[in-house]
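Field: COMPLEX_INPUT
Field: COMPONENT_COUNT = three
Field: RESIDUE_TOTAL = 1210
Field: MODE = joint
Values follow.
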Amino acid sequence: MKIQFTLNGEARSIEIAVHAKLSDVLRQLGCASVKMGCNEGACGSCAVMLNGRLVNSCLAYAAQADKGIVETVESVGSLDHPHAIQTALVEAGAVQCGYCMPGMIMAAKALFDRNPSPTDEELAIHLDGQLCRCTGYEKIQTALRNVAAAGREQAQ
Amino acid sequence: MKKQFTVVNKSVKKIDALSLATGKPMFVADFKPADALIVKMLWSPHAHARIVSIDTSEAEKLPGVKAILHHGNVPRVVHTTAGQGFPEPSPYDTFMFDRKVRHVGDRVAAVAAETVEQAEAAVKAIKVVYEELPAVMSIEAALTPGAPVIHDEPEAHVPIPVPYEPQRNLAARVAMDVGDLDAGMREADVALDHEYYTDYAQHCPIEPHVAMAHLAADGRVVITTSTQVPFHVRRIVAQTLEIPVRRIRVIKPRIGGGFGVKQEVLLEDVVALFALRTGRPVFWKYTREEEFVSSRTRHPEKMRVRAGVKKDGTITAMGLDCITNTGAYGSHALTVVCNSGSKILPLYRTGNIHFVGESCYTNLPVGGAYRGYGATQSSFAVDCMMDELAELIGMDSLEFRRMNAIKSGETSPVFRALGEGKAGVEQSIGSCELDKCIKLGAKEIGWKKRGRWQDKKGRFRRGIGMAALMQGSSIPEIDMGAASLKINDDGSFNLLMGATDLGTGSDTVLAQIAAETLGCDMDKIIVYSSDTDMTPFDVGAYASSTTYLSGMAVKNVAEKVAKQMVEVAAAMFGCPARDIKLQDNCAVTAEGKRATFSEIALRALYGTDQFQIGAVSSRISHKSPPPFSAHFVEVEVDTLTGRVRVLRYVAAVDCGTAINPKLAEGQTEGGVLNGISYALTEKYLFSPKGKMLNAGFSHYKILSMRDKPVITSILVPSYEKTGPYGAKSVSEICINGALPSIANAIYNAVGVRLRRSPFTAEDVWNAMQARAG
Amino acid sequence: MKINSYHRPTTLEEAQRILRELGANGLPLAGATSHAFMKGPEEKAAVDLAWIGYDRIERGGSAFVIGANTRVADLQAYHAPGWVLDRVALRFVSQPIRGMTTIGGNVARVFPWNDFPVALLALGAELVIAGDQKVAHAAETYFKGQPARLYQPGDLLVEIHVPVLAPGCGFGYHKETVVNMDFSLLTLAAWMKLEKRTIAAVRVAAGAGLPLPARLTALEGALVGQTVSTETIQAAVAGQLDAVKWKGGDGFSDAYIRQLAKAHLEDVLIEAWQGAKGGAA
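Field: COMPLEX_OUTPUT
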C-alpha cells in the first residue's frame, strides 16, 4: 500500500508492505537516527514522535503513520544549530556510544515541549523507556536537569 | 607529581558527541547499501547433537535466496573466535560450521537472500537431521568422570603450551602457590572457608552485533563491523577463509557499545565468505534474542575462598579456587579465570597464597570477554570474605582493608606468577591512592552511621557496605598499540590509530594526549581510527589498555612529530632547537620569535627541504599498573519481601591522571549501574534442555533511569609515571564493586550474607527466613 | 501474527461493519503494542481504531467516562478530584508504550499480566460494548473469563465507566516488578469505603500472580464490617491469603509470590484506608 505523511516537516510518500514497521520505513526514508536495539519496544532506541506522541517505532505499523506527522531527531537541531537538549548532553559528557541518544533526545523533547521545567522525578518517568548501557544515566540526568533549570529561569 | 596541563585532565567535549546527538549516520547499519544481501542463520535447537544431514535443496529454490553456507561447503579450519593477540591463549575448538552442535543457538547453516523475510523463509526450509547427544548443563556435570565429551574433534588444541583436557571437558587450567596455604590457615586466629557463585549475564549493548562485507573494485573484501578488535578480525577471517590477510580490510565505524562482547569474531567470517561467493554486499545484524544466546556472556563462576587472619588483622592465608563455565566453546576461558586470580589476589598482603583457576565446557551459551573479565566474579568472593573476617575479629572493615591493601612501592608475587597463558610480569605499584579512595568514599556515603544489623528494626532496614578493588592497565609484554601522525597545510594533524573507540571516547582521549604533547588545540587533531588499511596496528579495546598503552603510543608519536616541527622552526628562526617551545599552536622562543604550525607545515610541505612532517610509533607496556577503587553503597531491604533497593552508590577511583575527567566519571557511572543490575536483576533462565527462556529485554532485566540510584563518582588523582601524563585505566574496575558492596550492605541491613548472585528478592527473603528459623 | 491488510474507519459504525465483514480474519488495532508478543503464523486484517473517536476522558456525574481508545499516557496526564487511574498509568511499562497502548487494548483481550483489569475490578468499573446497542457489563462479569465471550462479531469496547472516588473512599494500588518496565509479578488493587471507622465496603483484586485477574472475595468478606486498623487488615490478609493459589513466574516460586501477596495486600489496603480517611485519593 502507499502511504503519505509529513516527516520532519517534509511531505513524503512511499510504497510499503502492509505489515511494514514504522522504524524500517523511516530508515528507508533516510532517518539513520532511528535505531533498532531490540525490535520489541523495550529499549526505546527507535522512539520517535508520531502525531504528537512519543512511540516506539519498531512496534508501530508504518500504515498507522499514513496521513500523519512523524518527527525524528533529524529535525531536532543540527551541528550548526543544536537544540538546547543536545548542547546540554554534549557539555555534560553524557554521550558515550550515542546509540541510545536519538531516542533519549526525542523522549526528553517530548517532555520539555510540554513542561519546560520538569522535576527529577518527572524526567525519570518520561525517560523510563529509554535504555542506556554506557552511562548509568547519571550525566544524562545532569544534562536534562540543566535544561530544566534553564526552563525555570526563563519562566522567571 | 602535579603538572599543569593545557588539554589533558580537562573535560573537553567528546569529538563525536554532537554528531551522535544529532543522529548522523555513523553506525554499521547506517552504511548498508540498498542492494545488500541479508544474512539469517539457522541455529541449533539442541544443546548437543551431531548433524546427520543438511538438505538445502528446498531452501535454495526459494525466491531471493542467493547462497547457503554449512559445514559441507566451507573451509574446515579450527580456530578460536576470541579476539586476542596471536597466538591466542584460547583453545582452537571452533569451526565456521561444524558437523556437531554444542549449544542451543550454535551455528548450523547460513542463508544470504535479498530480503529479511526471504532469508527467514529459507532458513525455515532447510531440513536438518540431528542425532541428539546427552548434554552437559553444569560445571558439576561437565567434570563428572564419564561425562559426555563436548569437544571430541581431533583438531581441538591450544596454540600455546597450556593445560587443555577436552576429553574431560576441561578447557583451561592455571595454578600458582606461594608459601603454604594450609600452614597459613592453621596459623590464623580466625579462618573461613566459603563457596561463592556468580551466574550468567549478558553485556546488552544497545546495538547488537552487526557486520557488513562488500568487495572492493579490486576484489578485496572490505568488512565494516561493530567490533572491538579490527586487527584480530582481519587475521582470524583470513585464517578461517584461508585467504591472505592482504585481501581483507576491516573498518570499525561508531559502534553502539561493546563491554567485551565485541572482542570476538562472530559474524565477520560469514559475511565475508558470502560477499566473496556472491559478489554482492552482505549485511548481518543479530536480533536481540541472538545477542543473548549466540554471542557471548559473562562466565558463570564457582569460587572457593579460604582465608585466615590473626586477631590483629594480619592475613595469614588466602586461597582461591575458581571454576568457570565457559559454555560450548573455550574463547577467553583461560584468560578470564586467570584474571580472577591476578586482578584481586595482589590487593591483599600475605605470604601464603594459593590459586587454582579452571574452566570447563558445558552445552550452554558461550562465555567470552566481559568488562571486569574474571575480576568481577572474584572481587565478589574475596571482598565478601574480607568483610566477614574483619567483622569476626571486631575490626572496622575500612581499617582492615587499609591495613592489608598493597601500597605504592610494594609488589606481590602474584604479578609474576599469573600471566595470560605466559609467565606473568613482575611489577611494583607505581601509584596507589586506595587509602584516599576509601576515606573520601566513606565520608560521602556516611560510613560512620551504618550501625550493626542486630540493632536495626522495622520493616524497611538500611545497610551500608563497601568493597576495595584493583584491576590492571593493559597486558604487559603482550599487547601493542601504534599510532601515526602527520601535519597538514593549516597546522592540523591527522592522527591515525588502530585503537578502538567503542563509545568510550578513546578517540577524544587520545587526541587530547596528542594535542597536549604537540602544544595545539583539540580542533587541530583529526582523528581516524580502527581501519586495518589506514591505521597502524592496535590489539583493540580490551584489558583496559587503550588510554594507558595506545595513549603512550600516541604520546610517543606526537613527541617525534614535535621534534620534527621544532627542527623546522629552528631552521626558520636560525636558532638552536633547544630554544624552541611548542605551545598555543605555535613554535616560540623566549626572545619572541614565533611561527604558527601552519607556517611550519607550509615550509615543510612546499618550501625548503620538503618532507612530510609525520611519524609512526608503537608501544608495548612493561607493566600493568592497577587503578584502585573503593565502592560504597547504601541499600534498603524490605524485610517482608526481601526486595533490595539501592539508595545511593559512591565510587571513588584512582585512575592516575584522568585524561578527560567527565569521560572517566561516565565510565565509572556506567560500569557501576551495570554492576548493580548484575548483582540484583540480571539472570539467565534456562529450560531443562538448555534453551534460554528470557532472551529479550522484556524478561532479562536491565535498569532504566527510573530504576537507578544516585551514583556519585569521585576521581582521586595519582600519577603513574609509566602512563601518558600519569594515566592508568578506568573502564573495567568500576563494574567490580557492586556485587561485594551490595552483598556487604545487605548483611549490614539484615544480617544475611549472600554468596550466590544475583541477589533476587526471593534469595534475600529465603536467607532471612533461614537465619530466623 | 502478520497483518495482511489495513483498514482505517473514521466512525464506530464503519469499524463495526468492517469487522463484521472480516469475521475471524479481522483484528482491531488499538496501540499495536501487544502484536510483538503474538508470534504465530496466522495472518489478520488490521482495523485501526485510532480515528473513530472514543479517545478521551469525560466526567459524567458520579463516574468518569473513559473512551476505550484513550491512550494510557492520557490517563497518566489526567488529573481531577476522585481520579485514581493516573497512579495505575504511571506504573504501566514505559513512556513510549503509554503513548501507544490504549486502555481498551489492555482489557479487550486479557493476558494474565495486564494492569487495568485489576484496577477496574477494584474500582467497580463498567465496561461498555457496542454492538447493535451499547451494553454495559460490570467489571466482575466482564473479567470472569476471556472477555471475547461477550463480544459478537463486529462488537467493540467503546467506553469504560469508572466511579469517581467519593469522599470516605480510598484506593490502593501496587504493581510488583523487578525493574520498572517489567511484566508484573503481582498486581494488586484495593478500594475501600469507610463509614466512621467501619469498613462499609471493600473490593480487592489481584492479577499476574493469578491465572486471570480476579476479585479476592474471601478477603473482602473477612474485611467488611470490621473496624479498620493495621491489625484487622493483617489478620484478614493472613486468614484469607490461601483462598487463592498464587502463581510464580519469571524465576520466582509460587511460595514467593504468595509472600509478596501477603506483604502487599496489607500495603494496598492500608493505602486505601489512608485515602478513605484523608478524603483525598
